[in-house]
Amino acid sequence: MSPQGEKHFSQRIGLLRAMVLGANDGIISTACLILGVAAADATGHAILVAGTAGLVAGAASMAIGEYVSVSSQRDSEQADIQKETWELENTPDRELAELTGIYQAKGLSHKLAREVAEELTAHDALSTHLAEELGISRHNLARPLQAAVSSATAFSIGAGIPLLASSLANDASRIWVTIVTVFAALLGLGVGSARFGGAHPARPVLRILLGGGAAMAFTMAIGSLFGATVG
């Protein structure tokens, strides 16, 4: 929430990205794995094992990838904070002039920009310089563990949808039940993410449905090819 108490959609973008990416990957990758194996005429048990393995491996991969990525971001942020702290302690006049220049570039007169820079420097010099120069808030740094857990959880939930659908269906209807369930899940994900992010749902929904459909069609074709070759 902003200092004025207003909610802005851009403030949610980090969490939204991690959750949507994780859920989308979970749904599509697991569905593709299940459909590819099913198209190759595998048994129901083999399909369940493949889907479960895909869920576990995918969740672990998402967690590790997010943790490493966000940890690198946090390391960079902390390095910038240390650098800015040193500059404020050793070259305060230069930093004040730099901050004044930033406010002048935003349209303030030199006099007013100087007054604002001095006022904010006296209040909290480090936070002001981090925000204005680097776009960093030292009270809201990247959280690697939170990102890892969020991504892994979202992936697992997403992957569980096609896995559950395929395990409950019989051999004759497994492929179509999985496809319909996946499209319904992707539709819900597209609408939900659009509303959460404050965007119109039409474009996100179309993107996610087309992408998911293409991925499933491709893996089914590969599975059918291998099934026919082996058969």
UniProtKB/TrEMBL annotation:
Molecular-function GO term, any one: manganese ion transmembrane transporter activity
Principal cellular location given in the protein's record: membrane
Signal peptide start and end residues: none
Key words of the record: Membrane, Transmembrane, Transmembrane helix
Gene Ontology cellular component annotations, sorted alphabetically: endomembrane system
Membrane topology: Multi-pass membrane protein
InterPro entries from the UniProt entry: Ccc1_fam
Record-annotated membrane-spanning stretches: 21-40, 46-68, 147-169, 175-196, 208-228
UniProt xrefs under Pfam families: VIT1
Subcellular location: Endomembrane system
GO BP annotations, alphabetical order: intracellular manganese ion homeostasis
Protein name: Unannotated protein
Species, as recorded: freshwater metagenome
